[in-house]
Structures are given as C-alpha cells and as structure tokens.
Amino acid sequence: EVQFVESGGGMVQPGGSLRLSCAASGFTFSTNIMSWVRQAPGKGPEWISAINAQGSPAYSESVKGRFTISRDNAKNTLYLQMNNVKPEDTALYYCARGYSVDRLGQGTQVTVSS
C-alpha cells in the first residue's frame, strides 16, 4: 500500500522559510518521479514541483526561484525547502507519486501570515 506522511508545516511570517518532508512507503521510491502539490482553501489542487529519479527538478512559475525540491532515496523521503514565502503560499501541502495531484496522505498545513 502506497503511503505518504507529510510534516514540517506551520505558521510563518511573509519572507520566512519552512522545510517540508514527505516520508514515502509501499513502492520503490528511488525509481519514481515525485511531486509536491498544494491546495489552498476553496481552490483545486496545484502542482508546484517535481523531481525525477536522477534528481532533476521542475517548478511551477508560482514557486520558481523561492522553493527547492530534493530527495533522499536512502531514507525514502522527499523535501521542499520554502524560502521567501508569501501569503498566497498558504495551503495544504502534500506529496504525490509521479505528476498525480491525488492526495493519499494527510498533508501538512502551511499558513503565511503576519
């Protein structure tokens, strides 16, 4: 059974930083593209970043230059370093296999507010 456990969210002021983690299990993590997806209140899911098995990243325009995706295949863990956060980054963040936007884990809430 594929499982994801996201963590690291919280409340942060504009301009601040957070590091999200996603522990994956139930499949061969190291050979899969992995993505971060977010969903703001009242909106649909938004894909924001992906990383392939070789570590090459891709980003949406909304987070490019501010967020960094990475992975540790030995720990089956995906990360998202969020810098210079903005109020519009407020959302539930979760990880997904491939380019799916389906949420399998509980996600982690990020709230950006002064």
Describe the secondary-structure layout.
Layout: E1 3-7, E2 10-12, E3 18-25, E4 34-39, E5 45-51, E6 57-59, E7 67-72, E8 77-82, E9 91-97, E10 108-112
Report the end-to-end length measured between terminal Cα atoms. Answer: 40 Å
Q: What is the percentage of strand-forming residues?
A: over 45%
Helix content: under 10%
Tell me the total number of β-strands.
10
Structural class: mainly beta
List segments where confidence is low: pLDDT < 50 over at least 5 consecutive residues. none
Order of helices and strands: EEEEEEEEEE
Q: Can you give a write-up of this model?
A:
The protein is 0% helix and 49% strand. It is mainly beta and 114 residues long. The protein has a 6-stranded mixed sheet with strand order 2-10-9-4-5-6, with no helix packed on it. Strands 1-3-8-7 form a 4-stranded antiparallel sheet, with no helix packed on it. The chain is globular and about 40 Å long.
